Amino acid sequence: MQRTGIVRRQAAERRRDTLERLVTERDVWVSTAHPDHGPHQVPLWFLWDGQSVWMCTSATSATARNVREEPRVRLALPDTFDVVLLQGEAECFLDQDVPGDAAEAFAAKFGWDPRAEEDSFLYVRVVPKSVRAWRGEPELRGRVIMRDGTWLK
């Protein structure tokens, strides 16, 4: 692999940069799988509440179907140079059952409230169990910055 002059960040700096991106980014790639239908990947808008990622999708979408059958998911921020991968289990809330603070924060971030739509939507909450973050080859070692739901030092 070619080196690009990247200075290797320590875990604390990677954590800080990752948390900043989780607050400021709009899109996340969501990877799910279904025992009968196989893998599925789609970009969704997301909200980071400081502990978990909140997304929303049509209640009839492949993503909704998949997380109901198999809640393990992987999330990826959309930058292949500044990689952030999160892994966890999805918890689903129908639009009428979602916690109000999460729904209000989601609506405030995007200017769109799925609860007001005619069709039914599913809110998906993922509390990360592991997080990997790296910028190029110099950061491949030490890329795990959260393990078993605990940020590493």
Name the features.
153 residues, alpha+beta, Pnp Oxidase, Chain A, 3 helices, 42% strand, Pyridox_Oxase_N, oxidoreductase, Pyridoxamine 5'-phosphate oxidase N-terminal domain-containing protein, Split_barrel_FMN-bd
Shape: globular
In the predicted model, the low-confidence regions spanning at least 5 consecutive residues are none
Q: Sketch the major β-sheet.
A: 6 strands, antiparallel, barrel
Largest sheet, order of strands side by side? 1-2-3-6-5-4
- Any idea of the CATH topology? Pnp Oxidase, Chain A
CATH architecture identity:
Roll
What is the assigned CATH homologous superfamily? Electron Transport, Fmn-binding Protein, Chain A
Q: Give the termini separation.
A: 27 Å
Beta-strand residue fraction: 35-45%
Label the structural class.
alpha+beta
- Tell me the number of helical segments per DSSP (H or I, 4 or more residues long): 3
CATH class: Mainly Beta
Radius of gyration: 16 Å
Helix-strand topology string: HEEEHEEHEEE
What is the percent of helical residues? Answer: 10-25%
How many structural domains are formed by the residues? 1
The total count of strands amounts to: 8
